[in-house]
Amino acid sequence: xxxxxxxxxxxxxxxxxxxxxxxxxxxxxxxxxxxxxxxxxxxxxxxxxxxxxxxxxxxxxxxxxxxxxxxxxxxxxxxxxxxxxxxxxxxxxxxxxxxxxxxxxxxxxxxxxxxxxxxxxxxxxxxxxxxxxxxxxxxxxxxxxxxxxxxxxxxxxxxxxxxxxxxxxxxxxxxxxxxxxxxxxxxxxxxxxxxxxxxxxxxxxxxxxxxxxxxxxxxxxxxxxxxxxxxxxxxxxxxxxxxxxxxxxxxxxxxxx
Length: 257
Hints:
With 257 residues, the chain is α+β, with helices and mostly antiparallel strands. It has two domains: 3-86, Arc Repressor Mutant, subunit A (Orthogonal Bundle); 92-255, 2-Layer Sandwich (Endonuclease, Chain A). It has eleven helices and ten strands. Strand 7 and strand 8 form a beta hairpin.
């Protein structure tokens, strides 16, 4: 049998996975398994016979035990289901991310906190981002963003007044619009010495805010509005975000007052 055969077999009837999961917890007789998985004894016996054909179980003293192969299969399938659950939890995040962000493994975001825009509260991720920025305890912030929004201004201005230095990477077009719309304010902000601004010729599809111990990921919809914000302290997520930030910064150039 092939791996696809086994995957199709387990997906073909919910009771099969429940029986396998129950045996992963402890060996059991068919009658006890029937009670545990809420199925008839005949159904359980049929599943056990199929497991035996695949070498996943052995019978000792009336009880069925997982073999080494069966244990590995049960663990792998449990991990697979957990991954699917995590992808479903992060569906709104991945829906707003570009295709080149597919290497951001959902398993890395197991412990992340996520806020997404809803019809009832379209600004939920914005408020979440602002609250997280205000709570940062750091000496330096590195930020990559496709937009320059006044919604975030107060939170980042507060960090600046506390002596936190910010490196900000924006698309070239965004920088030029900010310069042209408010030239006096633009020069004044850059002249304060609390902000290093870079403009990048590469399209920015994912917002990244990096602090000492965490990273905030911002996913934007087609309308340019913040669709989801992720707060993570996972080192793998930080490494992924840092690589993305540095790639844009290194391809860009420093903007002077």
